[in-house]
Structures
1.
Amino acid sequence: MPKGKILGVWLDVIDRSGLHDAIVSSVSGGGGDVYAYANIHAINLAQKLPRFKTFLNDAHVVYCDGEGVRLGAWLLGLRFPPRVVLTYWAWELCAFCAEKGFSVFFLGAPENVIGLAVDRARRKIPKLKIAGWHHGYFTKNGPENDAIVARINAADPDILLVGFGMPAQEYWIDENRARMKVRVILPAGSLFDYMSGTKNIAPAWMANHGLEWVYRLFQEPGRLWKRYLIGNPAFFLRVLSQAVHKRE
């Protein structure tokens, strides 16, 4: 599979169809493959968190989740297919899993939110096999964590979606992956908030122009202003610096 490197992070040149094909192979292989997403925030985190960068570069697949990353890639002479944003892809992924007979486990979000996400998934895609679910507010080590891992193993899902936010979800996956009986693991960020309907996705016209970040910023300015108003310019400055040095 072709790859491109942006600020030390390797991304796969892959679209939704390619992701579906790869997931089929991973489920057949049974190796607990990680499918990570990379947006501007992820690549920025990778610049200051070596462990997080290693996680991304060791993942089975890292797909482009953001128009900003595609633009950054273009500035570096790389060409990526249309981005795959999990909050939009999720329902298509669930329908694909239902079609293939793959089971899923949802892990993350507050208890009421994950419950709503499961209910909506069952209504929208009745044939989806939901192996289990659990909220994300548990101690991430020790007996409580061990009980969650045991619960996942007992459910024996093909696909595990982990939504703790970045980089907590990636670190948890890294620490527990080897002892989980799952075929595919996807970090999921705030996916369950959107699946449950407790948060709204950006209107189509904004999504089609890569402006989801503006919509999210207005939804949660206190939490996200640094990520977008400082993080986005910092990303492009780093990319431009990398582009200049490549030409020297």
Note: The beta strands are 3-6, 9-12, 33-38, 61-64, 103-108, 129-134, 159-163, 184-187.
2.
Amino acid sequence: MHKNTSPNRKEILKELIKSLHKGDDPEAVKDKFKKMLEGASSVEIAMAEEELINEGMPREEIHQLCEVHLAVFRESLEREKPIAPKGHPIHILMEEHQIILQFASELKDIVKKLRDASGIDSESLEQLKHITEHFKESESHYVREENVLFPYLEKHGVKQPPAIMWMEHNQIREVKKSLYKLVDEHESLDFKNFTQQLEEVAFSLAELLMNHFPKENSILFPTSLKIFTEEEWKEIRQQFDELGYCRFTPEGARIQSEEIEAPAFEPEVKGKIAFETGALTREELERILDTLPVDITFVDDEDKVRYFNQSEERIFPRTKAVIGRSVQLCHPQKSIHIVNKIVEDFRNGRRDVAAFWIDLMGKFVHIRYFPVKDKDGKYLGTLEVTQNITDIKELKGQKRLLDDESV
């Protein structure tokens, strides 16, 4: 037995499960379960449940208690007093926690319905697909935490808790992938097998969420509120808006970033060129541009060539002599009318990309043109991007970062 699991608590769990098995009212069991939960962590409950399964208790009966656990946990979340005002990033995340748990509850309701069915009806299938879409949408919730909240915590020296939370996010993602795969392949599976697998996924997902959300609500979020400045919260909210929200994020939380006074970006960084998203030395910037696996050329709003990078394996030759040259003089006479049409369309907002691809001495070359505009939409020029995609075209399947043994 896990050293942190109370023997008495385990026996109470057993009794609760047995009473559910006999057909006792779940509401009555829920009240007993609430009392048992006092002083017990979600991790401890999960460990006790796993121990009972190892001792031979049918997993399906444990799952019945999980439904009660989920109901109790959702009620406790709903009773929680807001720790941040509406529209605040923390308030948004906590509201999303409640909604995601509701989806987990609905998923278990579908499983419960399918237990006694002989096949999946169209209504249940539609509900299942609907919930699956919501879980896909919930990815935005985790992305905002990982790409905005966690980096700010790390800046303040809080590094280990975000790392643990990110690891748990990935565990949740793996279970969600199993759900998506099951729903996509339901027609090829025996109904009984499908239902059993769906129950396992629903149980695992609910348990993971119930173990994960309390850590964020009671530790990570209060810590953030203590150490972040008002200026930082404005920045965080603005970046939340930039990344976007789930379709189910409460509308009341979506105060547009224009309504929040935008923080002033550091105008100058000593020895570096400051951008809205960071700062680089001139050498860093030039080397980055030359390291890109593409050839880029910029033509200004007067149709003059103003810049090209010097990538290691340039496809079309460029020399410094072309700087200041009219772009029309850089193309054969027979294609000038096409160049003029593309530039004019960019200038007038009639298109936002022009793409071509050609075979060039054994290379498959992709050439794209993009209009470059300022924040107000004013045309600044055209960017040409050329790439050898011969090897890219041959890629199949997938190769993940962890698959690269040379790293």
Note: The CA atoms of residues 148 and 239 lie 7 Å apart.
3.
Amino acid sequence: MSEFLPAAASVSEAWLLSLERTAETDGGRAVHVVSTVTEPGTEIASIRRVLDNALDAAGAQSVDTVAETIFPASLYPDPERDWSPELPTAECALLDAAAETLYEAYTGMLPLLRTVNANKSGTYFSRMISWPGKEAGGINQLAARIERLRGEQLAGRRTHNALDMDVAADALTDEEDLRGLQVYAAADRRIRSFPCLTHVDLTLYQGRLHATAVYRHQYLFHKAYGNLLGLSWLMQFLCQQTGHELGELVVHATLADTQGRARALKLARDARAASDLDEPVTVGVHR
């Protein structure tokens, strides 16, 4: 039944633990698998390499491709500084410009992205920056989150638990009420199609920004590692833009799926054997 996995420092170890535990079940599936990454964005190169090779051999999307559906790091011109209340105006402007460049670049690509059938309802990131995500000009919920988190800094508040990214707001018509990140509609009756990510929660505690993401179906071979990495990049971006310290990432897979138990068992063995030979943990992109 429920699987509360040991906390792992890296995305790589958290993914591998979830794959190993789920592959141990008879059907290669498990309910309520909860993974924790204590240092979001960090990776173990050897584990990542084993998975990348397996994905390439299967003709599947790469880890980076999946990660960029949640946070397109390749479009973000990292200003290499963190926001703070004391940061000079010119320095703040550099951070704001970097974020705006990201938003504009992605919405500019959105018409092309939506020609892919899987993206016809928008993408995760388009829903974050232009709700409801099908075209430019929607509500930029990520920018609103940054403004709110900066406000917490300015007010000297280091703990706050009302920063949820809501899952649905179909009944709301007032734009001011659309405070959260809606990733699927309450009327959505699809069982296994987009979106698998149903909720993201942000919690500020003692100056650290933590995140919890809920997936209704977590595909451990094709998607899970990239999902963990993309969520880590999103957290790093929010922390850089708001000056809060990076906290833990928790991912709750209400159904974790190995997508083939025999392949998963071999992949887990290969990744574990490789990790035993590779001690260094490489740090993620933004921090």
Note: The beta strands are 3-4, 29-37, 197-205, 208-215, 218-219, 245-257.
4.
Amino acid sequence: MSGRALIVWGGWDGHQPGQVAEIFRKALVEDGFSVEVSNTLDAFLDVEKLLSLSLIVPIWTMGKITEEQFQPVSKAVQSGVGLAGCHGGMCDAFREHTEWQFMTGGQWVAHPGNDGVKYQVKITDQSHPITRGIEDFEVSSEQSYLHVDPAVKVLATTSMPVADGPHVANGPVRMPVLWTKLWGKGRVFYNSLGHQADIVQSEPCLTLMRRGFQWAAKT
């Protein structure tokens, strides 16, 4: 058994959070986790329960989180519980809650060209257990522009701009796609891919998520 995981899903329906939660639940069970799935942020209220987990997986684009809901998550991750998620479900959650952004390592701000942009993802750290053996790949989806914590350890990037927009005037930038960071004793993993369920369950995205779950949970 790899430990206990809690998936909490909800928020904006456009990211298909219920479907993504089921994809992640199935993957985690296949990898040996016992999994609880909840569609309410009140699942975060029981701090003792959160402290007993191996992994927390948020899938909650936008919305609002109260301090009573946030603080147990932060305390659990600081104690060593892993935190892992993707796309808007983790780094476009609770836009007004800057400490959530501090914990997760970044915040989505734009996706120039919207959905269906074809772009390359370049693996920049091929020695990490999350990315080892995975080659650079192309994806057709949203290309996320994020404001990123300089403390994160970047595992993969994409080159921007691809789509036109006012950002083009700044010239090319390498935008993080995958990263890890620490929050106290806890490991945090983020993957900006995953606009909808079809991208989440595509490869190598799903393999990256499975490895990220295992890494964050220290399995």
Note: Residues 3-216 form a domain with the Rossmann fold fold (CATH 3.40.50.880).
